[in-house]
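Issue: ligand-bound run for L-homoserine - logging full I/O for the record.

Environment: standard queue, default settings, no custom constraints.

Inputs:
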Amino acid sequence: MKVTAQIPATVANLGCGFDCLGLALPLFNTVTVEETVLPGTGIEINIIDKDNKNDISNIPRDKNNIVYKAIELLYNYIGQSPNELKISIMTEIPVARGLGSSASVIVGGLIAANELLGKPADDAVLLSIATEIEGHPDNIAPAILGGVVLSDWELDGSVCAKRLPWPEDWVVTMCIPDYELSTGISRSVLPAEVPMKDAVYNLRHSAMFVQAVHTKDRELMKLSLKDKLHQPYRMKLVPGLSQIMNELKHVDGVLGCVLAGAGPSIAVIQDGTKDDTIKDIVSTAWNNINVDAQIYTMPVYNEGAKIIV
Ligand code: HSE
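Outputs:
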């Protein structure tokens, strides 16, 4: 028996919500999990890059693979171990670009394996296992639930995730440069401690973010999409980011411009679809420093990960 899951891309942080806010986008990976019938065949992991745009050569094909590790935790949860498993990953979400590709495959492997096992785990267990593997819940939660999600990770490992009522006409322009930036490198430039005034700044802005989406308040949203906890430290890893953020501030319809997750992509949150000006500004800034990019405008995707076969 085999099961295939489809999982959306996600953008984490959204400026003020470092490690706790994220949204899903209509761009997908698929993960197929198959319990092989022949005993002794062990674990087989295949990865296919749909558009041949990513370097997938360094992704482990053994028990160190994060999808396998997540599935192993699920089996352990029901007191079993996976013995014979074939995992096939089809990637369409750009890898190491800030679009939650690792969260998507972790979630895909988990929900496919959960289906194979007769659904022993509910969303709360899946959220908790996936977050343990990923290290933060902000991509995992919207990958599972869809939409815009606020998530909390408690010390006991439990995750509380709540969807926020995102206005339909607030869309996202994703500016995806042609180079990779690993989350590990992007987290390594963050300080272990931050000044109290910066922590309070983000606290205020994330509270405003939640109120802005509940009341569809464009001006409050514009005010809220700011951050002092991660973007300032990561600027040096994403050439052009500071200039692009400054120029987009003056574009009609732009509610804010944020680093997508750990970068290097940039997400522009906008009211309506005036993407030509945004595209021109971003591509000119990046062309000047020899960075090619793909730029697409898309709505927030309101469905989460699902079983498709
Ligand atoms: N919140 C995480 C970070 C997202 O910014 O490092 C990484 O995908």
